[in-house]
């Protein structure tokens, strides 16, 4: 629903019941006041001679008078009690053959002969009918007294009854107990009949409440105009902004709720833009990573395919297979496996500390697994893989996968770049100072001093570190370095006593679990 | 016939390869192509289980958990994910060892062998026999091909240290610290001298092997 329509409907829905409720309250107040006025005037009339006249001729006694309007309705209005208005019988004129009722005097508390409503209409007359103690009237014109009136007069001294006639006229009956006992005029019924269409029935005239309501409504609808317009403009701007990947800003002016909304959208827009940028950067990194990984894996895979194709050709030609070719193929497959593990380790290292587990790791078992993994490649290359570990498990705290990958990288480097009939040895020793030393020694070509310091200084930097360098110290040693740092260990590179390289890790032991 | 080994592996080529290699190594493999939630009595009589973690039907770790409620059979986990958390979880659930794919068949067979050998190694032996050597660790006597050999205290301690861990290399540094007389200044050079004397006394049998870069190891040896 549109804002304006909703507002108009809400206003109508609130105003109309409110008007009705006010009218009802006003009616009930007026009724009560009318009752009191009628009671007071009837009592005074009966006490100032009415009783005598009534008891003298109860069959015909009946008074027709005009009820007094409530005080607030009379104020400021001309009181024409000087004489009866034309066309209306005098209120104090007696009916039938009975003597005339009391003559009105100025200042009399009795009902005035005439009075006007606030809008100048005349009030309907009040008729009085006498009843005896049995609620029987000798006057044949008297209306019947029902249980409601009787009950009322017994309980409160006044019985009240209101009902509508078929023609819409409102009848108001008041049954009063007179301050004397016995006689045909013990009770008096005062009846007032409001003709149909009088202001006491239904709503007050439309122009009284309808016009202000209408003015209010139009004022609201007109005042809402600029608000609706600004909201529409803001909506358009937000749509345009979302259509432009939130690059287009929305205008913020003023300091009201609409400006607040625009400001909130600006904030949301900035947030979304930051998120988008962040996501794009991550996607770019992922794409780069994937592209480089693909490249890194595809190269050894191509070599492997070449070897397999060469073997197939030789088999078809009936030539014997060269063991060197087979070994090279195995090495490529082995390298690929190591590469993929390293990429996984690199991803976890880049993700940072939360990805790293700290659990007890038995270095003896780790060394044995690393040697077991590389033995099938070292043996055909005629490189002896040896290890020496303490007799009891060597427990340290760390991330088992990363540590294994680090040691594995160093060992694999020794194998890949070792000479035939060479050696790679892993020596694990503990000291009495609750620390361990793990050394990987080879008798390969070794690396120069310059290169060694370069490896230790250079940090792992995304792509640059992942290329396959001729000396094979690319990704592998960087991961080793990062893992060692992450665990707070120390790593040294030195020429081994056998002419090759000696990589040593030192770190603290933990007390065995359990 | 060799030990019966249960392989739980869903991949056909890999499964048949592993079965082939285990059979070639003298084992008697059984192959299940999917995981099952075992209850006591379901497990066939096997000496070891090789269990793949990523399985259809039942996830490998669930199977291991169920298995561990009634059986202590050694379990070797195969996993394609090189994830520490997986390994820690598997070991906590009672796995004995794990291997990350890819692996060489030789490596798998070695691991299986090592796992099956383990229990007999636990016992502390009083008499160690390696090849022609018979070493009585309590009586401090050594025989080569039934012939007693006289050794000095250091030489015997050296041989005993190696004999307690046959086939395993013992580092030079450990031997220097634990075997040589702490009163005298012991160096690796002194150790080498003791070793060469010991070798001479043991005669033509080359049981004390030098391990490159590490130290020494006791092997069955061959006659020269």
What does this structure look like?
The complex is a heterodimer of chains A (about 525) and B (about 220). The longest helix of chain A has about 60 residues, at about 255-315. Chain A has three domains: about 5-205, no CATH class; about 210-305, no CATH class; about 325-510, Heat Shock Protein 90 (2-Layer Sandwich), CATH 3.30.565. In chain A, helix 6 packs across helix 10 (about 475-485), helix 7 (about 365-380) packs parallel to helix 8 and helix 8 (about 400-415) packs antiparallel against helix 10. Chain A has ten helices and twelve strands. Chain A is of the alpha+beta class and about 525 residues long. With about 220 residues, chain B is α/β, with parallel strands linked by helices. Chain B folds into two domains: about 5-120, Rossmann fold; about 125-220, Winged helix-like DNA-binding domain superfamily/Winged helix DNA-binding domain (Arc Repressor Mutant, subunit A, Orthogonal Bundle), CATH 1.10.10.10. Chain B has seven helices and twelve strands. Chain B has a five-stranded parallel beta sheet with strand order 2-1-3-4-5, sandwiched between helices. A four-stranded antiparallel beta sheet of chain B has the order 6-7-8-9, covered by helices on one side. In chain B, strand 6 (about 125-130) and strand 7 form a beta hairpin. Chain B is elongated. The chains are: A alpha+beta (about 525), B alpha/beta (about 220). The interface of A and B includes residues 334, 391, 399 and 427 of A.
